[in-house]
Design brief:
Strand content: 35-45%
Helix content: 10-25%
Structural class: alpha+beta
Low-confidence stretches: none
Number of helices: 5
Number of domains: 1
Largest sheet: 11 strands, mixed
Mean pLDDT: 92
Protein name: DUF1365 domain-containing protein
Pfam families: DUF1365 (PF07103)
InterPro entries: DUF1365
Distance between the termini: 33 Å
Length: 270
């Protein structure tokens, strides 16, 4: 197994900017995990082997629970493979990387998680975006062009799910994902990755929001877990607090407020 297929912790930044009716922007330092689901399911990867401070389906300083993703019933790999086949995607038989926030002392809220689904030749085949709001609801956008999708191309989806009360449930998302592996002199295995997920949102009047999540990876280890925990203490608890703080700032700026509509009758769109 390539060392690149080891679980990662990525250290980076969330950026968000709004252009109207009031200019509003913020950025926060964060970290997130990237997990190779096939390698983990095949037991090529045991997270406990790399870090005693990160656990799978058990409480720890940082942890990942299967029930936090997918249908909360099946193992993540079985669920995503079944969903892809159901949607007519039969060649995503390579590694599937799940990118999300880990649980911190047992707590997590993921506004969006990404499932990067590759073919056996390593090319990106589809991306599933798993979106959650603070009302306990979720929706999934499957990005699929019908063939391989080079990193860096623009992918689109119609907005059908209520996320923020300061945006209508209409318009279009524009996604762009970038990933680059390069040498890193301070890493004992000699590699690192830079990943960027960029989401632009347009409503009927044109471009409105631009959000990005970027990070530089470190292999999962006790050292990277300790760095994450103390560099950003109780980060996942702060995610929800910061969402409400930014909502208060928008309300003070008198940005129009939209009540939550009825949830969609389905939980995935393409």
């Amino acid at each position: 197994m390539s060392t690149v297929n080891r679980p990662q912790l990525c250290f980076g930044t969330v950026r968000h900017s709004r252009s109207r009716p009031a200019v509003h922007a913020f950025n926060y330092g964060v970290y997130f995990m990237r997990l190779p689901l096939r390698a983990m399911a095949a037991r090529d990867v045991d997270t406990g082997r790399w870090s005693s401070l990160f656990s799978h389906n058990r409480f720890n300083l940082l942890s990942f629970y299967d029930k936090d993703h997918g249908d909360a019933q099946q193992a993540p790999l079985a669920w995503i493979d079944g969903l892809l086949k159901q949607e007519g995607i039969h060649d995503a038989d390579g590694e599937i990387w799940l990118q999300a926030f880990p649980r911190v002392l047992g707590y997590v809220f993921n506004p969006v998680s990404f499932w990067f689904c590759h073919r056996s030749d390593g090319q990106l085949r589809a991306v599933l975006c798993e979106v959650r709001n603070t009302f306990g609801e979720h929706h999934r956008y499957l990005l699929d062009t019908g063939t391989v999708m080079p990193y860096g191309i623009e992918l689109t989806a119609h907005k059908v799910f209520h996320v923020s009360p300061f945006c209508e449930v209409s318009g279009e998302y524009h996604f762009r994902f970038m990933r680059k592996t390069h040498a890193y002199v301070d890493d004992t295995d000699g590699w690192s990755e830079r990943t960027v997920a960029r989401i632009a949102y347009d409503d009927a009047a044109g471009p409105l929001l631009l959000t990005s999540l970027s990070g530089i990876s470190r292999q999962l280890s006790n050292a990277s877990v300790i760095k994450a925990f103390f560099l950003y203490p109780l980060m996942t608890f702060g995610v929800v607090a910061k969402i409400h703080w930014q909502a208060l700032r928008l309300w003070i700026k008198r940005v129009p407020f939209f009540r939550k509509p009825q949830p969609p009758s389905h939980e995935m769109s393409r």
